[in-house]
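Annex B. Sample input.
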Amino acid sequence: MASSAVPAVISAGFRGITTKDACASGGTRVDESYLTASHVCCLYDTDAEHNAVVARFVRDGLVRNEKVISILDVDERTPFLNSLAFDDEMVISAVTQGQLILTATDETYLAGSAFHSTQMITQLARETQTALAEGYTGLRVTSDMEWVHRRSIPIAELIRYEAVVNDFFAQHRCMGLCRYHKFSFPTAVLMDIVALHPLLILKGRLYTNAQHTLFSDLLNAIDDRTDK
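Annex B, continued. Sample output.
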C-alpha cells in the first residue's frame, strides 16, 4: 500500500493545520488501520468530516463482529444514529441485538459521580470481557470529548486518562476512538492530547503519529508543570 507523509502536527498548533501542510517527515498514512488500530485521536473541523469518521469506525466494527459502544448523552443519540448513513438495516439490527450500544457519560466516564482514570479503565476491561464472552471478536469504544467541558472535568485528569489508557488498549482486544473538535480545546491541551495517541485522524485520513509520546514522559512533564 502506498504511503504518504503526515504533518508534524505538534509543532505549530492545530487551528490552521491542513493535510497540505503535513509534509514533514514522520508518520505514515495507514488508512487500512481503521480496522485494527488501538488508540486513535480524531481531530475534526466540520460535522460532515466528523460523521464520516464515526460512520466508518462503527461500520468496520460491525462488519468485523466486534461490539461497539458509543458514549454520548441522551440528547445526542438520535443525531448519532442519523449520522450512520451507511446501512440503516445493519444499524437497526446491531442496536436491537446489542452489538451497538449507546450509553451515557454518567454510566461510563462519570460512574461513581466523578471522573477517575482507573475507574474508567476498570470499566473498559469489564466491557471487553463481556463482549468476548458474548462471542464478539473484540470491543471498540468511541466518544466525542466535548463532555469534558459540559461537566467541568479538570484538564489534567483528562490528559492523565488519555496517557494511561494507552497501555490498556495495547494489551486488550479493545480499541478507542477519541474525537476532539479542533476549536474546543486550547492548542496547548490538544498538543498534549494528540501526543498521547499512537494514531491520528486528520481530514478523515488515518496516520501513524510521529509525535506520539510515551505516557510516562508526558505524565512527568504534567507533574513538573503542576509543581511549579
